[in-house]
Amino acid sequence: MKTLLDDHVYDLMMQMIAENKSLWRIKNNYKTDADCDECRDFWNRMEKDKEEHISELGELIKSHMS
């Protein structure tokens, strides 16, 4: 059994953390602070994009951990 992660797996995990933090800020701050429809639409699109990135990162990480 491997005890250390390859650099690229560690990079994927670090990016997942960054994406999750960003998604949390979008959901809990940015969307509620937005004061126009154009900005709310942007944050909604960004939220969906982040969720897709997180899902893809999760699949990549799983594939390298097995």
Commentary on this structure:
This protein has 66 residues and is mainly α. It has 2 helices and no strands. α1 packs antiparallel against α2. The longest helix has 29 residues, at 37-65. The mean pLDDT is 94.
Key features of this structure:
66 residues, mainly alpha, 0% strand, 2 helices
Radius of gyration: 15 Å
Q: Which term fits the overall shape?
A: elongated
Task: Return residue spans where pLDDT drops below 50 for at least 5 consecutive residues.
Answer: none
- SSE run: HH
Q: Mean pLDDT, as a whole number?
A: 94
* C-alpha end-to-end distance: 10 Å
Layout of secondary structure:
Blueprint: H1 7-33, H2 37-65
Helix pairs in contact: 1-2
Short overview:
85% of the residues lie in helices and 0% in strands. The chain has helices spanning 7-33, 37-65.
